[in-house]
Amino acid sequence: MMQRILQRDVPLTVALPWMLLFLLSPVWLFYVYKTICILTAVIRALIAPGSVTLRAVQNDLIVFWPASHIMMTHPAAKIYDPAWFSAWRAAHLAVGVSSYLQYPYPPPALLILLPLALCGYFSGFLVWTASIVVLPGTALLHWAGVPRRVIITGLLSSAGVYCVWIGQFGIITGATFICGLLYIGRNPVRAGVLLGMLIIKPQAGLLGPIALLARRQYRSLGIAILVVLSLSLAVTLIFGVSIWPSFVALALPQAHRILDAPFPTTYENSGASVFWMMRSLGATVELAWVLQGTSAVLSSAWCWVAWRRPKGDHLALIALTSALTLLVTPYGYTDDMWGFTLMVGWLAWNRRRLELADVLMWMWPELCPIIAMLAHIELTPLILLLGAIRAWKRLDGIGTTAPACYPVPL
Question: The whole model's pTM is what?
Answer without folding.
Answer: 0.91
